[in-house]
Specification:
Elements: H1 2-24, H2 27-42, E1 47-54, E2 57-65, E3 81-82, H3 88-100, H4 110-113, H5 129-133, H6 156-162, H7 181-195, H8 199-211, E4 232-234, E5 240-242, H9 253-256, E6 259-260, H10 262-273, E7 277-278, E8 281-282, H11 286-293, E9 297-298, E10 303-304, E11 309-313, E12 316-325, E13 328-335, E14 340-346, H12 353-366, E15 374-375, H13 377-384, H14 389-401, E16 407-408, H15 411-423, H16 427-440, H17 445-457, H18 461-474, H19 479-489
């Protein structure tokens, strides 16, 4: 009887603690939490961490889910995520610090700092530091980051800079915008050479330690095992699995390899909301803040600054950077006029971090309701291989009739689902999806050609040609169908 009373008491205490924890959340924080958990489910994400700061007060800082689907270890607000391109503003911040020290000039040529830097195109001699920070250098972007062949030694960054000797510029430096990850990787070598220390050590001693970002690092081997998360991708059965490839290679440090957590990133937020200052320390000057946030060019949609992009949330400016690599998604943004900043990180391949953060910010500023939705194909993927196309149609129609809807319904989401299936060697199920897509939106040639692609993957060349011909009847100018008919005709 005593044991029963003891366990009853413990249970009551645990329940009481949980209730007290829930009660300590403000109505705004509770709404954010519920929205995050719902969206986590929509995208089948193993884990999500989120932070929001307003007027120097942390409104929300928490993590939900697991570090890895293999271990099921729970996430905490200290769990470290690969931040992908959210790394880039840290590089820009280091550059302005070195400008303050007189070691770098924004308008100086890259070759002044790296005399060994060459390309096959002589225009490379005109590349400036500013060009590189604003994606106007002309240095071509790359597709293969060799995550499967990571380099860890101190010489990796210089070797990468030297490897550009076989490349040609995409355009004359300063002529236009074109996103360039390699430009930021090469800037790491500039930082190392002018500072006299490795890029990673510079970031640790001049940014992370002064700010108090105790767990953040650009060097993957420094990530403690108990704080590490794992990347997740869609597996062959369209379920999330741990990726065999981890997105780390020291030669791509500047563009991609920051590891951080929600607690540290909220300190980073305070630095930018206070224009370079935190806890009585000046990480960079107000003049450098103005330099970082000045407009240099446009990418067609957003204003481009030194690494940062900016737009408007209603009429209020927001500076931001998002990130996506194998198995990870991230977003960081700050709104100086509203004294607001937000960070989101997810250990999954696909997630609408920018969209979700924008909606949560609108709630915080304008008291808009948070109604986060996901793309419908994320729900359909769980049924196409196990229950077939008829179940998929049933779910599609049922969800579409809901008010309010939990998902976005666009024809291209069905198209995405079909190509997911093709990429994972399920062409028959892909064809079923594409045929349903044609049923949903019959007057678009692209969906008809998608069905043709499924027939091609099934080895039905004649049927593939016939369906591409159907596409041309809808749109006689559709070049993809013409090209595929020509290619496939040679195989008959």
């Amino acid at each position: 009887m005593k044991k029963l009373l003891y366990f009853s008491t413990i249970l009551c205490l645990l329940v009481s603690c949980k209730q007290e924890e829930k009660q300590t959340l403000s109505p705004e924080a509770l709404e954010i939490k519920n929205a995050l958990l719902k969206q986590k489910g929509h995208f089948d994400a193993p884990g999500i961490a989120f932070g929001l700061i307003k007027n120097d007060t942390i409104i929300y800082s928490d993590a939900h889910g697991v570090k890895s689907l293999d271990t099921k270890a729970p996430l905490t607000s200290r769990s470290l995520f690969h931040m992908a391109s959210v790394s880039k503003p840290f590089v820009a911040t280091a550059i302005v610090q070195l400008i303050e020290q007189g070691k770098i000039d924004l308008n100086e040529k890259l070759t002044h700092y790296l005399p060994y830097y060459t390309m096959t195109d002589n225009r490379y001699k005109d590349i400036t530091i500013k060009h590189m920070l604003t994606h106007t250098s002309g240095i071509p972007n790359i597709d293969d980051y060799e995550w499967d062949k990571p380099q860890y030694d101190d010489g990796a960054i210089e070797r990468y800079a030297r490897s550009q000797k076989n490349f040609k510029l995409d355009f004359t430096p300063g002529e236009k915008f074109n996103y360039s990850n390699p430009a930021f990787d090469i800037l790491c070598d500039v930082i190392a050479k002018v500072s006299g220390m490795t890029f990673e050590d510079y970031m640790k001693k001049n940014i992370f330690e002064p700010i108090g970002m105790k767990n953040s690092t650009f060097f993957k081997p420094e990530v403690p095992k108990d704080l590490a998360t794992q990347p997740h991708i869609l597996g062959d059965s369209l379920q999330m699995v741990v990726s065999e490839i981890y997105p780390y290679n020291r030669r791509h440090a500047g563009s991609s390899t920051l590891h951080s957590n929600v607690e540290d990133m909220l300190l980073w937020a305070q630095v930018y909301l206070n224009k370079g200052a935190i806890n009585g320390k000046q990480i960079f000057s107000k003049k450098s803040y103005d330099l970082l946030t000045s407009i240099y060019t446009y990418d067609g949609k957003s204003k481009v600054h030194l690494s940062w992009f900016s737009g408007k949330l209603n009429d209020s400016p927001i500076y931001y950077h998002s990130g996506q690599d194998t198995g990870y998604n991230s977003f960081f943004g700050f709104m100086p006029e509203k004294k607001l900043a937000v960070v989101m990180m997810v250990n999954a391949d696909e997630f609408w971090t920018l969209n979700n953060c924008a909606r949560i910010l609108k709630n915080s500023i304008f008291n808009d309701s948070i109604h986060l939705k996901g793309p419908i194909h994320y729900k359909l993927k769980d049924h196409i291989l196990t229950h077939g196309i008829e179940k998929v149609k049933e779910i599609y129609r049922t969800e579409e009739q809901k008010n309010p809807q939990d998902y976005y319904f666009r024809a291209n989401y069905l198209d995405n689902l079909g190509y997911w299936l093709i990429d994972r060697n399920h062409p028959k199920e892909a064809l079923d999806v594409f045929l349903y897509l044609v049923e949903v939106e019959p007057d678009y040639a692209g969906w008809v050609s998608s069905a043709a692609d499924a027939y091609k993957e099934m080895g039905s060349i004649n049927m593939a040609i016939e369906w591409h011909k159907k596409a041309l009847k809808i749109d006689p100018s559709y070049e993809y169908a013409k090209e595929e008919i020509e290619r496939l005709s040679k195989k008959r």
